Amino acid sequence: MPRYEYWDVEDVSSVATSVRVKDGSVMEAKAGSSSGVRVRAFCDGAWAYFSSAKPGDAGKLLATAKETARKLSLGIPGPERHGLAEFVAGRNWSTRPKRDPADVSLDLKVKTILELDRAAAIRRNISTSTSYSDATTAVLLRTSDGLELEQSLVRCGAAINCIAREGGALQSMFRSKRGSGGWEIVESVDPREFSADTAKRAVSLLKAKSAPAGRSTVILDPLIVGTFIHEALGHMAESDHVASHDSVLEGKLGKKIASPLVGVTDDKTTPGGYGTFGFDRDGAKAERTVLIENGALRGYLNSRTSGGKLGLRSTGNCRGEFNQVRMSNTNFLPGDSSLEEMIRETKKGVYMIGSSGGTALTINGMFNFAALEGYEIRNGRLGAHLKDVALMGNTLETLKSVDAVGRKTEDSSGTCGKNGEWVPVGSSGPHIRTVAVVGGSHAK
Amino acid sequence: MIDTLLRLAKKAGCSDAEVFVQKASSDVSASERGVLNETVSSNDVGVGLRVNLGGKMGFSFCTPTGRNFHESLVRNAASSAKSGDRFTGFPEKRKYARVSGQFDSRIADTGTGGIIDMTLEMLSALKAFGKVRPTYASVSRTLYHQTIANTNGVFVSERASQIGCGAYVTIGGSVGWKSAGSRRLGGIDPASVAKTAAERAIEALHPRSISGREMDVILRPECLGNEDGLLDGTLIEALSGENVFRKASRLSGKLGTGIFSENVNAFDDGLLPGGLNSWAADTEGVASRRTTLVKNGVLESFLYDSASAARARTSSTANGYRGFSSIPSVHPSNFVLMPGKSPEEQLVRDMKEGLVVSWLSGTHTANGFSGDFSVEAKNAFYVKNGRILHPVKSAMLSGNVFSMMADCVCASNLEQMPGGISAPSIRVRLNAIA
Fold this sequence. Notes:
The complex is a heterodimer of chains A (444) and B (434). With 444 residues, chain A is an alpha+beta fold. Chain A has 9 helices and 23 strands.
């Protein structure tokens, strides 16, 4: 006889618009919709998932899912059987945009994005591409625990990429502004700051030099700190990795893993955060989860499944189509230094600005990521402008080497991929100073 | 549905219209910690509608369910045309070649039971390796059906099948993974994929540090190919006719000139037998073809979809690809960097000092426009006087994709990648930073 069974049915529908402009011409302006039903059934450690574009299929799919989960569970050996973690049930929730994107015409969206794109054409030999997207996703979740929850998430944002050319050389610069909310996010963008400044930075990179390679003191700006804390710590704290013996943080709960200056949270409730929601895929209430406090590891990110395997409560981090432990808004908490002090105290090092993404291996904590640009630091002053600055290191060593944390934080947004699924995530952080391996590529 | 949409679009005043319907049904069987504990079955369908209204292009998409989706889809597409791009025409009706090995009915017949059995085969192959931890192993099968029709009389409806498997294992701090995909049921061997993953993790155990400097590096097929290899965001982007037209490609103006080492040959082939992106037509109905891109190091052609071809006043190379929710954009079908003559072992034997690297981490951070990259070498091995001595603890490799390929040697071991970008091992000169 099965000891623990559970099922849920999620109806999902979304409407989205997007605009793509390149070099002052509209490439694509569209509005569309999609919908479907997703069914999950659990039995003693086994999951069966079904999805269909036809909402009417739910009943049939649920019956098949329950049967499949029961059959699968028969093959699970005793020690690997488990139930689902304790959780706090969520409540109905919706993003409250100041100006609902549905009330803004596609025409105005196109005009606004064209204006942002044209503001970047500050000289000849510059190519621009600017994009806009909004999506409103409505979910109705019904579970075998008797929950019936509704959620409506609205996300909106714009991004620009500028490519500057000179001779045979090409350099690019990227900028984005996205969040949970409506048209107000894009409406408040200043074309001079958003577009012209991005173009100027691309042009200035044409004369930048490669970074000095090797182990070095580095000051990371808030945007790259966001990437760092997401890639290099957040993924390792996802407890599906911990349960699969695939995380360097396994067995380290309560232990010092970082400098006492380091504090990290994953906050699903951040107002306007790109990764914000009201309840997760399991129906668990969104919460602020402390990961690191004064350098000690205080918790992991858990879904009901991964928590069930480890005997931990859910932290409301189940996201995606069916069941993955994912981050929401991951934050490096502020300290009491300033950027000026950090630079002044640094004899030799590299200042890294902006993020062009990164990745980490959870099993051993090795990470690498790249900045959009950087500056050399010599004798307490900023020196040469640097391009294509990359950073590599080991998470735990790098977190232990943090010796200064800034007062002011800045938010950033992105999309995070895991096993082929992409979810919107946010980050925030201050400037920090640490030590890692810097790699600069060398264009010939 | 298709006829109704084309008719309604005409009725709404659109002089041209095009419908793209995409259906996929897939089943996945997955295991964690060596225990089969998950199955996923999905049935997806979507439709995209492009129209020409008053010389401008409109587009919309939806899940075709409910009573009124036809009307609202046409209304949304027509309304987006007001803000749309200049209409450059839809492809004309033409003859399509037959693609061999595109659909294997045995994949359709195998059912969830079949893929569960294959996953168990993988797990039992991994058990033989004792201490290797089988973190994740899975098998999936997908059946595709896509139809493209337009008011020029184009109508192509094609089915395809795919089976794939992958394993990710760890031992100590060492990782091994391997994936494979095929259009034929017998085209993958799940047990041998699992075995390769385990062997890769074991061979990378007990790594040692090296001192960094410029050295010869052999990049194995997974470093370059696949969707997470080094070529996807760099060389592939530079070959896009749209980027070339915008002068956002390093290869703009280089047609007919030598850009790479003489032993570099590359092509794109939408009709490649058994190719995982082989279709009789691309997703706007242009007949698939083979396009030589680089011949003996000389740049021969770029890749175009219909819109970029119209802008550049040339013809489409049948490289318009999309999902139902987007308009087509330039993408390779089956891109192949052709193998050279020497086996990889020979390239190792010829090396005085250097590295052999199995895969790269962080390739998406490579600068897509300049080609500059700094990425992390994974499962790398140190070579001295033609012999592989030991695994390497950590190394960042930095260089430039375009200069690296201007001075490279291709090995003879071509491997087809599920992501549609295939490459052999290549020997290049890079900066290793340890």
